[in-house]
Amino acid sequence: MGTHTEHLHFSTRGEIDLVDITLEVERVVEGSGIKNGVVIVFVPGATGAIVTIEHESGLLEDFKRALKELIPKGKGYLHDRIDDNAHSHLRATLLGASECFPVVNGRLVRGTWQQIFFVELDVRPRHRRVVVQVVGE
Question: What is the pTM of this model?
């Protein structure tokens, strides 16, 4: 059993910025030397998320709109007394900080239209780090 870990670093533009990290995750998996196992994609932080969604402009806009409708900004959340980003934290909790994928024959397994995105949910641009860990043999 082996483990290979790499970190992806990038900047975001702020609230509900979607960053496609599919190719970077595939590169980590293929370079890991692990043939069969799992890859975990994880964002350390309370206002970022990892999701899978098709990289199609209309769908990405629909996704942004749905997030805004599900958890709207400025609804009197108690956390807003601290830093006015309670909606960012709530959205991140709803979406989740990680996704896990199978690795088979040294390749990431995903659906044809299933890309991996980092979702920036904070109210300002950020420099982000995503941990990609491949575990297997």
Answer: 0.96
